[in-house]
Amino acid sequence: MSEKIKNAARKRTGQVFPGFVFFFGRRRLSPTRVAILVAASAAIVLLGIVSYGYGSKLYRDWQQRRLLHQAESLLKEEKFDQAAQDAREVLTVDPNSLPAFYILAAAAERQNLEEAVRWRTQIARLLPKDPDSQLNLASTALRFGQIDLARKALNDVVPEHRDSAAFHVVAGWLARAEGNLAEQEGQFAAAAKEEPANELYQFNLAALQIQSADMEKSAKARAVLDRLSKVAPFRTGALRALLNDSVARNDLAAADNYVQQLQMSPEITFGDYLLCLTFYRKLDEKKFRPLLEKVKPFAARNPSDLASLMSWMNQNGLAEDAIKWIDKLSKDELAFPPVSIAVAAVYANTKNWSRLKRWTSSGSWSGSDYLRIAYQAIATRRLQSRNGGTAHTEFETLWRSAEQAANEQPQRELELARLASRWNLDKESELLWLRVAKNPPMRREALDALRRLYRENDNLERLYDILQRLHESSPTEAPITADLARLGLNSEQHIKESHDLAKEAYDHAPNELNCAVTYAYFPDRLGRNAEGLGIIHRLPLDQLHDPHAAVYVALLLAEAGQIDGAKEYITAAETEKIYSEEKKLLDEAKRKLAAASAIPSPAVSLSPAELGPTPTGSPQ
User: Fold this and answer.
1) Looking at residues 470-479, what average pLDDT do you find?
2) pTM attached to this predicted model
3) CA 338 to CA 23: how far, in whole Å?
4) Helix 440-456 and helix 410-422: axis angle, to 10°?
5) What is the pLDDT of residue 287?
6) What is the predicted pLDDT for the residue at 25?
């Protein structure tokens, strides 16, 4: 077709697309029909696009449902890795898939993997108002030692759901992780009250309360555990608790009964055999030796059991017997952790420093090599001291090597800190405990260790700081609050804060000795001696003869001019070692007693009628 004919055709048809002419067969299409055809084509294309997109979505939804169903089946079959793989594939399509997160959390928890915390965190993020999601997160976080996260999850539970039994149980386990046994008992009691028919809650509470100094509580707990010892899921746990209780009370007949039942339990563990040994060691020597000899070859089959039995012997006055047993075992049985560590502990406990140094001077304990070097350092230091040496260069070099081998791993540093405390390495243990205290699951043990260290060294400034940290981490633990308050009052630097803390502790536990004595001491400092005596008189007289409490009672009585009573408690305070700040108060009581003795007064005993009026209000 010539260019001239093409141009003529364009003019006739009004073609809007240059270079094209539409024909249907031999007929040319009109502009209207062209428009209709174009519109229809576009509609078909659009419909195809929509159909493709909708079809793709349907396919993706179907694929997700298939993967989730498959993952759930794999989870039931305990094929955890495959189940997790399917769930992760779902997340590549839907990053906020709740079912996928639930599957991943369950798979990780059943494999005891810490990544379970990650998945529980995602579930709680997507369901912030759901109490179960927050409680599951808190529970899983506690399981893997993430105390701060657990506390935050509990705080995120909406107030209207904080009275549930489940909340109280998780709060109780958090309190235990923080070392606050009083709070743990309170939370477990609240859970049992909410669901009195729940035997698990009854067991948890009874296992705790059987250790109580309150005779009524312990007797009630004993009865509950005795009943639960006949219920299959709680049988072994209840028998363990009852056996421990019987041994502590020297109840031979009851303990022997529980030992027999425990040994017949299908769930008995090697730890239970050690529990039976503890009983016979304490109460029945004739049965103890045969059982020990019976357990030894059984323990030798498993390195963990072998180490456990050696450690048990070492801690129960049988270290020399353990050495004789060690000499009979082969090198292969002893050379590697955990057995090699238990052997080193036996040598250290028997102060066989030369043998300990030889034992730790060569070889490798693999991931526990830091302990081998640490024991070598301790042996070196003790040998130097025994030989009259004063240079500690070799010890310090070895100890630094042990710390480097620990590689700043919290669990290893914890073991080193315990070892340093055990062998009175104050400088080394202090630095380690301060580092360990930064790790939430280990914080309470570290702070308690630092508290003992600073108390023994009479470092009251640092002791006050540690008590503050303990109070912050466990604010409802009344005895700690009272100790902090009393130290603040004695230092005369935190008077207002200390008074508030003393009242807080007393309000929380008015019958607890330290709390009551601390609160009674404050009004006396303000010149309101009768109020302090009124608080003291509510306590059992036998408790007041505790040396640390007797100091404050003597001061109150001396202030009141009760000469004979003051003398009695001054004598009680001097029976044992008391703290440096308490010695100053005792000297003050003696001065007041001397001043009061210059004026004749009738003999007065510490009885409610003679202590003055019971306070009806709180000191202001």
Assistant:
1) 87
2) 0.75
3) 92
4) 20
5) 85
6) 47
